[in-house]
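Budget justification, computational time. The allocation requested in the original proposal was used primarily to generate structure tokens for proteins on the priority list. As evidence of use, we reproduce two of the resulting records. The first is shown immediately below.
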Amino acid sequence: MASTQQRPASRRLQARVMNVVNVPMRLLLGLPFATPAGGRLMLAFIVGRKSGRVYRQPLSYARDGDTLLTPGGGAWKQNLASGAPVRLRIRGRDHLARPELVRDQQTVAALLDVITAGNPMAGRFVGIQRDQDGRLDPQRLGLAITHGFAVVRWHLDGADAARP
């Protein structure tokens, strides 16, 4: 019988906590006006690739020029079709964005630096330790990418590219 590798207890606990916290966050972020949480969190309306059901996923984000960056550690990103637009609710307004999954280790490391600079709380949820110089541990980052971690770069469409 093949053994399955189980996530560390801290990650399992974090997933359970997020399942509970996401319920009120969906309501708060879904409001048609800006809320204090909207400065670093957005609500993505993601269509299930098999079910066709629309899932409302609260996500942290940071701005990088004309794009938004989200750490993608959960299973939700598997439903992102390359180039297919996704509706995002940011600060009470809807925007269309095209997701790009970034998995190149050097690029992911650079983008995580941008994310943590713009949204320090997001760095705590990523859970990849930094060395004494402040760089992400390359072995742990590589392992995370191997197990599905990515950064989602959201390209805002047309008029939506204006600062949300």
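The second record produced under the same allocation is shown here.
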Amino acid sequence: MLTRHGQCYFVTFTDDAMHFTVTYLLVVKSDTFSNYCQFEAWVQTQNHSTVIKVLRSNRSSEYLSEEFNKHLAAAGTTC
């Protein structure tokens, strides 16, 4: 089922330190990376430059792209 804006997927990110979850609606699964970058920026803003240490995922293809892995490595995040 699609939303009004054509979104049929979602991704959630949870900040374990703040016990806060953000859900993003996606048109395509490949939007996961850009939404992760938004979440990462939000975490750093809210927690005063705190970095994300671990990203837990189901290891599906949207989390395994070369661009995503390079970004995580540069940020010091393990997956």
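A brief technical remark on that second record: Residues 9-75 form one domain.
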